Amino acid sequence: MTDVTDATAAAPVKAVDSSATARLLAEAAGRIDAPDVVLAMSRGGVRTVHTGGSAEPGPVARERLHYELGSASKPFAGLLLARLVAQGRVRYEDRAADLLAPGLPVHPSVRRITLRHLLTHTSGLPGLPADFYPQAVPRWSTDPYGNYPADRVVRAFLRARPRHRPGTRWHYSNFAVSVLGHTLAAATGTPWEVLLHQQVLAPLGLEATLLRPGPDGTDATGHRRDGTPLPALDTGGFTAAGALRSSPLDLLTFLEAHVGGASGSPTDPSLAAALTEVTRPVLRRGWRHAHTHTLTWFQHPTPYGPVLFHAGGTLGQQAFLGFRPGTGLAVAATATRRVHRADTFVATAYGLLTETP
């Protein structure tokens, strides 16, 4: 892992051909096998949405259903942290253990873990706590997280023995981002759900983005690979890492805020600063440090400029979020089938983002 401070220059915004975009999305949706599929694109603030899938449409339009985002929830957590930093309420270099349990003896490596380490997957923590698996395996395909509540996540963090010195290696960790959520709640004296709503969801007008199932009939139903429907996912104490549900239309609004689309630039200085901060590359990771990462987005180069993206999957649903800074292009995609080896969902959504002029 290495620090990085530069990025590829973005391409200029081009005129939008909405009919061509509609054909592009329809063709892409045909490559995705799922009961419900939504591909949504915003180009210079002009939105195009294609819905489809193998199931019969329900009473609520697919683009207005709430879909489980899984790990695509993490960019929301990252924007929240960036805004709290811009407001001066916390600092990236604040130590999580000091905020969660002041004065409690912890392992020296745990003491060194900062908020930045937790968000950027450089804390040295494993993907999930070691004691998570014995209770999760018997319910792995139905409810692996529900019996692991918030206080248990915090206790597991405070007694952890990180594998690597914080800040030295990148290792994707739902555990770490979940700890970040609990730490910010402790630091501000505000429950995570309230904090996220106050700082991110309400200011951006994301009324269809929730941390729990919505009213009956408004949530998309996930499916196993064989098509068997699944109940709504309970993320237990891992809320910040993967609990959000959102409509594709709300997801476009969230992404447009990052590229300055239809919703325009936020007037609040701290939110505007946070949106800028989360797009800034901060480290390189992977083989020969070939991959760039911002505070919360993966970043790849393309002929049209850098793309920032994040995907997520739950037991029976998938989501993809991505945009090209400075070009006005954003893509949100959802599907209601569990990811599998031959799955084309992420590759298809990524291609819309990286191959569209």
Describe the protein in words:
This protein has helices spanning 18-29, 74-86, 96-100, 108-112, 115-119, 132-136, 150-158, 174-188, 192-201, 239-242, 248-259, 269-277, 345-355, and strands at 2-3, 37-43, 46-52, 67-68, 245-246, 283-285, 291-293, 298-300, 307-313, 318-324, 329-335. The protein contains 13 helices and eleven strands. Mean pLDDT is 93; it is low at 5-13. With 357 residues, it is α+β, with helices and mostly antiparallel strands.
Q: Indicate the structural class.
A: alpha+beta
Low-confidence runs of at least 5 consecutive residues? 5-13
Instruction: Work out the strand percent.
Output: 5-15%
Q: Could you give the order of the helices and strands?
A: EHEEEHHHHHHHHHEHHEEEEEEH
Radius of gyration: 20 Å
Biggest beta sheet attributes: 9 strands, antiparallel
| Average predicted local confidence, pLDDT | 93
Strand order of the largest sheet: 1-6-7-8-9-10-11-2-3
E-strand count: 11
Helix content: 25-40%
**Form type:** globular
List the total number of helices: 13
| C-alpha end-to-end distance | 31 Å
